Amino acid sequence: QAVTMEKMVAFCKRRGFVYQSSEIYGGLRSSYDYGPLGVEMKRNIKEEWWRSTVHMRDDVVGLDAAIIMHPKVWEASGHTATFNDMLVESRTSKRRYRADHLIEDATGIDAEGLSPEELTKIIQEDDRVKDPVDGGRDFAPVRPFNLMFETYMGPVKSDENLAYLRPETAQGIFVNFKNVTQTSRVKVPFGIAQQGKSFRNEITPGNFIFRTREFEQMEMEFFVEPGTDEEWHEYWIEERWNWYLNLGIREENLRRYEHPKEKLSHYSKRTVDIEYNYPFAGWSELEGVANRTDYDLKQHAEHSGENLEYIDQTTNNRYYPYVIEPAVGPDRIMLAFLMDAYTEEEVNGEERTVLKLHPRIAPTKAAVFPLSKKQPVSTIARELYDDLKGDYRLFYDDSGSIGRRYRRQDEAGTPFCVTVDFDTIEDKQVTIRDRDTLKQERIPIKAVRDRLKDLISG
Ligand code: ATP
User: Fold this and answer.
1) C-alpha to C-alpha distance for 255 and 390, rounded to whole angstroms
2) Average pLDDT of the chain to the nearest whole number
3) pLDDT at position 71, please?
4) Residues of the chain with pLDDT > 70: what percent?
């Protein structure tokens, strides 16, 4: 049985995964802070993405561009003119809604991508569309609302100092295309990967960390020769799909969604989303994999006056590469992993809550328990802990019964618990307990490091 959102939010707070931002001041809507377990888990997600996308490959390099870029970047990319959501305001409750969502929720009509005029017409004519707060039907005409956060660079708040917080990380990659090709030894086909914060002034943020105004993204722009783009697109959809499966997401909770041709973004030739079946919202975008064509590089070439063509050194051919882009947010991934892993079950007549997270994603990799606080059991346990803690996040716990300590770690998703008991003094062996199977194995202390390494890499 799937966990409800309410339960997940309460669980995340109670166990220190995610807190409401500025909670002591009543909380800031749609802003969240990651607690001690949450920050470890999110770092692991980003680390796994970076490892598989950059380190494990010979054809991808990394980048870390600034959040505030030259305002012309957003003109060239089309964001200033078209990065809009359709806003509708209720004249009675004064509430603002995303017009396409309001229509979809009330009628089931897929209204994404319709013009303000088309949306206004539907809202006026279809009396199923009501203000969810007071049931009223008096709406102002729909208008586009730009989602970019504005700020000013320097002490003067003037038009020429207007700047934006980036709404996506991708543009930082495109504007550095020339730098990277000239200063590293990349050759098409190759990719540039980036992780970092993005900001969108969403009209209706919500569903916990699924949609917030400040969030992180992990994007990779993979540059290919035109004509090979469709094949590479398929390749990256497959790669990203398998990434989730390899990290333990249940396949029945994933599906592909093909964007209909008429609803593609202005830069896209084809986009396929990997959707996750979130219990609170049904199938929703987890990740988008887009064929962005040569749109962005050509736009930046035109607006900057720089030639951004790629020169093939072996054939001397010059061309604008096509771009395949897998784009995803670690916050959204984290929610999917948590939902997928959360389990309430009965073992030996007792209820337990357990997060069955893949060991690579689990916030804490292992816990070390001395059975007793007495010497030398506790000294041996402490030595083992100190010896291993530089390798990954470990947890030391010597308080409460062993059963209670196990339950705490089950809830935190810790895959392995290592217990030092009285027999350890004589046989120099410890017990490793597996979170999911509950099986215990006894191995020499000296073998713990290698054994845990094997178990964690899964
Ligand atoms: P949506 O349709 O859900 O608004 P999108 O199609 O606008 O998403 P993209 O621009 O493709 O999203 O961004 C790539 C990825 O960044 C998304 O798949 C998602 O994982 C993440 N992302 C986008 N917007 C948000 C947000 N407001 N909060 C959290 N993550 C987000």
Assistant:
1) 38
2) 96
3) 96
4) 100
Ligand 1 atom with minimal separation from the 200 CA: 27
1 has a pLDDT exceeding 80 = no
**Ligand 1 site, residue 332, Cβ cutoff 6 A:** yes
Whether omega before 71 lies within 30 degrees of 0, making that bond cis, reads no
Say if ligand 1 is within 6 A of residue 85 CB: no
- Indicate the residue type of 313: Q
Centroid of ligand 1 to alpha carbon of 97 (angstroms)? 18
pTM of the model: 0.96
Domains for the chain: give ranges and CATH numbers: 35-71+163-339 (3.30.930.10), 84-146 (3.30.40.230), 364-457 (3.40.50.800)
CA-closest residue to ligand 1 atom 12: 288
Q: If you take atom 24 of ligand 1, which residue's CA is the nearest one? A: 211
Evaluate if residue 178 carries a pLDDT over 70: yes
Pairwise CA distance, residues 75 & 63, whole Å: 22
Residue closest via CA to ligand 1's atom 27 equals: 211
Q: pLDDT, tens digit, for every residue of 92-108? A: 999 999 999 999 999 99
Is residue 42 within 8 A of residue 50, CB to CB? The reply is no
CA distance 282 to 100: 17
75 in a labelled binding site: no
Q: Using alpha carbons only, what angle is made at residue 293 by residues 290 and 297, rounded to the nearest 5 degrees?
A: 115
Give 329 Cα–ligand 1 centroid separation in angstroms: 7
What residues are paired with 98 via a beta bridge? 87
- CA 34 / ligand 1 centre spacing (Å): 19
Residue 8 three-state SS = helix
Query: What ipTM does the predicted assembly reach?
Result: 0.97
The reply to whether ligand 1 has any atom less than 6 angstroms from the CB of 370 is no
- Count of alpha carbons within 13 angstroms of residue 28, beta-carbon side: 8
273 lines ligand 1 (CB under 6 A): no
Q: Does position 458 have pLDDT exceeding 80, yes or no? A: no
Q: Is the CB of residue 209 less than 8 Å from the CB of residue 334?
A: yes
Tokens 């989602």, residue located: 147
Distances (CA, A) of 215 to 24, 25, 33, 150, 168: 22, 21, 11, 16, 10
Q: Which residue among 285, 325, 334, 335 is best mutated to probe the pocket of ligand 1, counting the most ligand atoms within 8 A of its Cβ? A: 285
